[in-house]
What does this fold into?
Amino acid sequence: MTRVRLSDGTLLNTRLDGPEGAPWLVMSNSLGSNLSMWDGQIDLLTRKYRVLRYDHRGHGASDVPPGPYTFDRLTADVIDLMDHHGIGTADYIGLSMGAMTGMGLAIHHAPRFGHMVLADGRADAPEMFKAMWDQRIAVVSEYGTEGVADGTLGMWLSADWRAENPEATRAVRDMIAATDPKGYIACCQGLKDLDYLKDLGSVGNPGLHTCGANDKGAPPEVMRARAKATPGAAYVEIPNAGHVPNINRPQAFNAAIADFLDI
It folds into this structure.
């Protein structure tokens, strides 16, 4: 693990895996998580890539600067990390908030990226979406991230998976509850201003849009519309999976990304 200082002075926690000299892949995780959420994909991805993972600002072992954290800032964080490591171009995988960050990168920094996997994340913020974040902010303000841990588990992971994997479920819950409340709220404030849907027609990067079939936060009908709005994008639905299919159904998720990334 290495903490990298960004252009605004913030330190982000990062990790590199895979052989030096291999093509680069950047991975960006969800709200309320840290870079360990991708552990189930690393053995696969390092067959081909040098992988850069990081904790979003306000998450994991990264700094928690004052918010809100806009998507202009979150996309700039990725570019800063790439510049620090001398990464000219990279493929990209992002989930939820990481997928939203990826949309911003595809729209505003397309030459820096090749293939992009964008999983389980909306491209816009309708009123019901904004209201959900207002409610989440209120709960975290009063109870901390412990107050949203159980509800988040229910959205992320199917009931059968949680029953069959109690230790892994506890680990995921602990990760959510350990997220700094100020960092969590600062990201929620940025999520309320999400506005990429109108610009997806300009995206030219090869794209795979994946979605858990039971995702309530970014449901399949929303994801299919997002993929349709993105020229040439493929869409793969992960059966019996919630909002975080890379943990909930890793075999199906890994098969989808391996096919797309030619691993």
Notes: The longest helix spans residues 127-143. The first strand starts at residue 2 and ends at 5.
